[in-house]
Design brief:
The chain is an alpha+beta fold. 30% of the residues lie in helices and 32% in strands. It contains eight helices and ten strands. The strands form three sheets. The chain has a six-stranded antiparallel sheet. Residues 236-242 have low confidence and may be disordered.
Length: 242
């Protein structure tokens, strides 16, 4: 069977119609009721409800009990380059803040010791935050940095950019990064912190930052809301011969 011959399920055809309707209506617009949509597309409310549920999971729609279904605001595009979360947000004219959940020192386990090239049990500074964009929680982030970074909390209160603080106060400049990206589902803790349902999609990034000598100076785990985030990267010098 070819793609042209494949017959999409009824709910999927309704879903694509609703996607088109939402894009035409624009952010914050209210969609018709399930009853109205079922009549328009000559289908059942169950089919409409399934289509809406998938678009909610994708972040295109928001559904509020007792109020209805609305087109979600545009997702911020998060650019993972050599910049920090704060710098990325500023470049897009977005207001970023952070809720600091904790700053402490912990011993390096086997995985972190390998990633940061420190002895097993070596001292690490752990910084755990919820990153917020325009008042809405976007990511749960935990960073590990070699050594005990004294006064880090005070520096963060004045400047939320960890990379800028490392450069200006600790003499550490991130010259290169290695990012690993994967999809996961939210557990109970991340669901609570990010205001989403357990099992909701997350985009998980793991970043290792290196200094100019190739020495690891940062390892960060960031879990981004899948319904409020899209990943963008730009690569130059692409081989076009293939």
């Amino acid at each position: 069977m070819t793609a042209r011959e494949f017959a999409a399920p009824k709910y999927y055809r309704v879903k694509e119609e609703l996607r088109r309707l939402a894009r035409e209506a624009g952010p914050e617009a209210s969609l018709p009721t399930e009853r109205t949509l079922a009549a328009r597309y000559q289908t059942s409310r169950t089919t409409v409800r399934q289509a809406i549920s998938e678009l909610v999971a994708e972040g295109l729609l928001n559904r509020t009990q007792g109020k209805g279904t609305f087109v979600a605001p545009s997702r911020p595009t998060y650019v993972r380059q050599l910049t920090s979360f704060t710098q990325d947000a500023e470049a897009q004219h977005l207001k970023s803040t952070s809720d600091i959940l904790g700053i402490d020192t912990v011993p390096a386990d086997a995985y972190l010791a390998e990633q940061l090239r420190v002895p097993l049990g070596g001292e690490l500074t752990r910084l755990e935050r919820v990153r917020v964009i325009n008042g809405e929680p976007l990511a749960h982030e935990t960073a590990y940095l070699p050594g005990d970074l004294l006064d880090l909390k005070q520096h963060l209160a004045r400047n939320g950019s960890l990379y800028a603080i490392l450069r200006n106060h600790y003499g550490t400049t991130i010259a290169e990064v290695e990012d690993t990206v994967m999809t996961v589902v939210a557990g109970p803790l991340e669901a609570h912190l990010l205001g989403i349902e357990t099992g909701a999609p997350l985009l998980l990034t793991q970043r290792r930052g290196l200094d100019a000598n190739g020495i690891p100076v940062e390892w960060t785990r960031s879990a981004f809301r899948g319904d409020r985030f899209q990943f963008f990267a730009r690569t130059s010098g692409v081989d076009t011969t293939n």
